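Minutes, project check-in
Item: structure for the 148-residue chain
Input as provided by the requester:
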Amino acid sequence: MAYFWIKSLHLLFVIAWLAAVFYLPRILVNMAEASGQPAVIERLALMGRRLYRFGHNMFGLAVVFGAALYVGHYFTAQLPDVVGHMKWIHAKLGMVVLLLIYYILMGRWLKRAAAGGALPSSTTLRWINELPIILVLAIIYLVIAKPM
């Protein structure tokens, strides 16, 4: 029973983090399109900072519960060895690291834009916003199919 609770909480926090990963670049798009409107940019920067902080908190909780799934069987018999000798988990974790790097980069762009720095064009930001979809799709495939 503990396994299902831990897995459910892990999934909940991953979904919450991904909401921030997908939405933060949209705030940057709006900031890029609001040039010359300081009140709008200030409001968007505030929203972005709050979302960025929320995303980091959700990522931290997802890591805690994910680590419990990954190594929990060493500490209690209630948790199964969900990884075994499969190598898919290493590919998944590598892609999660790439997503985290992407998220941190978006946070740095937000901080720069809030300080009056330049952002890429809104069209470029829209294309950049699509990158995590590819990674998330690959992660979902690995988790479901466990091909290796």
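Outcome recorded: The chain has a mean pLDDT of 91.
No further action items on this chain.
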